[in-house]
Fold these 3 entries.
Entry 1:
Amino acid sequence: MTLLGFFGCALVAFGPAASFFAVVIARDPIRVIILIASGFFWLLSLLLSSGLWLAVVPLQKQLAFGLVFSVLLQELFRFGFYKTMRKAEKGLQMISEDEMYKDHNQAKARHVLALVSGFGYGLISGAFALINVLADMIGPGTIGLRSSGEHNFFFTSAYLTLCFVFLHTFWSVIFFYGCDARKYHLIAVVVISHLTVSCLTLLNAQKLYVASLVPVTLVLLAVGATAFVISGGSVRRWRAWFTMKPADQLNGPPRGEFANTAVST
């Protein structure tokens, strides 16, 4: 039973991420390198936040304190990775086999770079968040007894990990675009929403799982839609995807063509 629970929660948390990696990232070695590099930046933020937590002894028992500073450091290192990628952009264009660079579609390539870097950020974040929970699930013990009620914690942890993997993915798309276009309100949206959903997870300590799961899911849908529009998405493109027709063959003017407009840094 414990082994089944282990694989079930692991697939809930990382199954969609594994599919995303196989379809979007694995085919391009440059994207794999960017994913690993972004994960390393997240680890640096974890190292600094851990050092800060150890240094401030009186507040070590205040989980909210460590959480807030961890989020702020993650966003600071997200900005650091953005600056690093912009400095390395010309080199990436020279060595990458990505068709977007070959077509000189700089804006679209930047959105994909942000998507991959955010996914790396979220993947390593999710791994560190869930690894201890998965280790406890292997046993000894049995999950799912009605008298316990702790089985909700394991599923909640797995589902929140899934949400945070893709939240980080969408946040990076919004964050990078906000930096490129100097739309600082988008950067503020990323930081505030990150703080909000992270603080909501504190409710799980009181077993208020629904109070955290529902708002986090709504935020995921909202930032996902925002990242979709920023990257050039529109209802027209969704229709084209579902009908398996090119977007230019559908009626109506094109909308949301952000990806076709070059942005300056």
Entry 2:
Amino acid sequence: MIQLFLCPSPELYGLYHRDGAAVLITDIFRASTTMITAMAHGAEAILPVATTEEAQKRGRELGCLIAAERNVRRCDFADLGNDPKEYTPERVGGRRIVLTTTNGTRSLRIAREAGAGYVLIGSMLNVSATLDLLERRGIGEVVVVAAGWQGHVSSEDCLYAGALGYELELSGRGKAMGDAARMMTDLWAAHCLTLEERIDYIRSCEHYERLCSAGHEGAVPYCMQLDSHPIVVGLEPNGDEWLRILD
């Protein structure tokens, strides 16, 4: 039986850390969606880094594609930004990518520094595949870390926990635990079961408005669709720092 917890901001992760739990980093708009897309389209591996300086340095040293975004926009020095549509099979197939984003890669660093071992990347694109892997590996506790925006809570990231909680309980494989995960599971069931409902709900949220103002409204339906890519991407507990597809 999988127990699901939601940490609504990476700044709070120290309060939610659970020894032995899997940690799901989610940044629906758009880092985790972009990472899943890149790997589904044939990228070899992704190295998440916290700063733009590290992205430039490591990318050049390793001969990788450099992907960098700050405040919804691609950095001038980067080969790629943080828009999933950039990560085509032709562009990323067989390549390694060094990636830094405003919120997603920062959240991963915070969780790792606080002791998270088994880290997965969570997106709407692979909810079912993620639950299948957790069950296969006998993971009993899962903490979703919602990346948010510069420390503030974002609805779309918390809703990801609702999607997981709903599917866990519907299938009898687990339960949403604690008030945060319970609220998001109930919200998902009431307002977000269809893509149309999810998009309608998210239109009133801050990060949706931020994407629209930067000209990225078209990314929203893609980011909010369920189970289009049946892969799981993450870091093995005793592995290196590269994100890869996990079996």
Entry 3:
Amino acid sequence: MMSGSSPQRWHRRKDDRPAEIIDAALKLFTRKGYAATRLDEVAARAGISKGTLYLYFESKDALFKAVVQATVVPEIERAEHYIRGYRGSAGELVRKLVFQWWETLNDSGLRGMPKLIMAESGNFPELARFYVEHVTNRVRKLLASVIRLGVEQGEFRPCDPYIAARLLMAPIVFISIWSDSLLPYEEPDFDVRAFLDQHVEIFLHGLLSGTDATHEP
């Protein structure tokens, strides 16, 4: 005889299935790559049948997009919300965003996402376009708004905020990819936080209003 609590467990389990599938897919996509990941593997990791997986996601393409929407996009939205209510130094905000993003990448298992996109973009351009639209462009716009704020406040020198945002992003993307590929074999004791701290210091020094960027020949 089924206990009285069994239906509740069933409903809770059923409601949790999309999140469990997405979590399983994220782990497999970032470990094996998009092309090498099979949906039956995702289903097995999530503890369901492949047929059940198709009740929630019609294809691997749809599942990948759902992973991005459920894991990466909410972090961007939180940052956007924080920026809208922020009052203070733009330089300090840059620092907070960089380190918060790195902590999020490590804590959520998202660190392998940049490497995944770089590796698969040539064979799956539609996924690359989706990622650029929903992640890369939004992050760049977010960072550009912070740099623009610094210029308007007189804290940063006048500059193209979108180019500056690219300069800020590039080393962060690099260290994400490097940490998930060559770093364990090259410098296993490398201090990523020290790297990011140095990067932010150099970046902000170049932006600070009144900083003489000219060099003698």
